[in-house]
Specification:
This protein has one helix spanning 96-99; strands spanning 2-4, 13-16, 19-29, 37-44, 50-56, 60-62, 67-77, 80-84, 91-94, 111-117, 120-125, 129-137, 151-155, 160-163, 172-176, 181-185. The chain is mainly beta. It has 3 domains: 2-62, SH3 type barrels (Roll), CATH 2.30.30; 67-125, Nucleic acid-binding proteins (OB fold (Dihydrolipoamide Acetyltransferase, E2P), Beta Barrel); 129-185, OB fold (Dihydrolipoamide Acetyltransferase, E2P). The strands form 4 sheets. A 5-stranded antiparallel beta sheet has the order 9-8-7-10-11. The chain has a 5-stranded antiparallel beta sheet with strand order 14-13-12-15-16, with no helix packed on it. Strands 2-3-4-5 form a 4-stranded antiparallel beta sheet, with no helix packed on it. The chain starts with a strand and ends with a strand. Keywords: Cytoplasm, Elongation factor, Protein biosynthesis. One of its GO terms (molecular function) is translation elongation factor activity. Residues 130-185 form the Elongation factor P C-terminal domain.
């Protein structure tokens, strides 16, 4: 189906010259003079080659229809990362280049959205917020005020997070998966 270029988002699949591309980033630029453009970085699904395209924001682009469903993460092995569809129990192996840097957010049973095209996973969407346990953090320096300063900490999945001074090792916190930022103390 045809859509305007400015409506493209990360994870969308575009059909260009009979080849499929998954959108990695999409930005709209509105210069003071001239036509607004959409800058899109994409990865070709067939061979993994990355390409950059620039379209006028009103230009029509062919968007491929993909199957988007929730999957539960199971485990990782030599074949890749294994996910299971919760209703049909159908399993799917996803390659490491599709999972990318987001593998730190994959814990057993984690629910993610997988986009598949003809049975092959092409993109993955992680939950926006994940609860992790802080395993290591610096001690509080006397005189630091709670509102102004954050201290570095390491979560159970290895991610570095800046947390408020009152958070210590063993505390469970909610983290934003997009930028690894502290959201709040976990309520559980």
């Amino acid at each position: 189906m045809k859509v305007i270029a400015s409506s493209l988002r990360k994870g969308n699949v575009v059909d260009m010259d009979g080849k499929l591309y998954v959108v990695l980033t999409a930005q709209n630029f509105h210069p003071g003079k001239g036509t607004p453009v959409t800058q899109v970085d994409m990865r070709r699904i067939s061979d993994g080659v990355k390409v950059s395209e620039r379209w006028r924001t009103t230009e029509q682009v062919e968007k491929a229809t993909v199957d988007e469903r929730e999957y539960d993460y199971l485990y990782e092995d030599g074949e890749g990362f294994h996910f299971m569809e919760p209703e049909t129990y159908e399993q799917l192996a996803v390659s490491a280049d599709v999972v990318g840097d987001g593998k730190v957010w994959l814990t057993e049973g984690a629910r993610v959205f997988l986009k598949t095209f003809e049975g092959v996973a092409i993109a993955i969407e992680y939950p926006q917020k994940v609860t992790v346990e802080i395993v290591e953090t610096e001690p509080v320096v006397k005189g630091q005020t709670a509102s102004s300063s954050y201290k570095p900490a390491v979560a159970s999945n290895g991610v570095r997070v800046m947390v408020p001074p009152h958070i210590g090792p063993g505390t469970r916190v909610v983290v934003n998966t997009e930028d690894s930022s502290y959201v709040e103390r976990a309520k559980d």
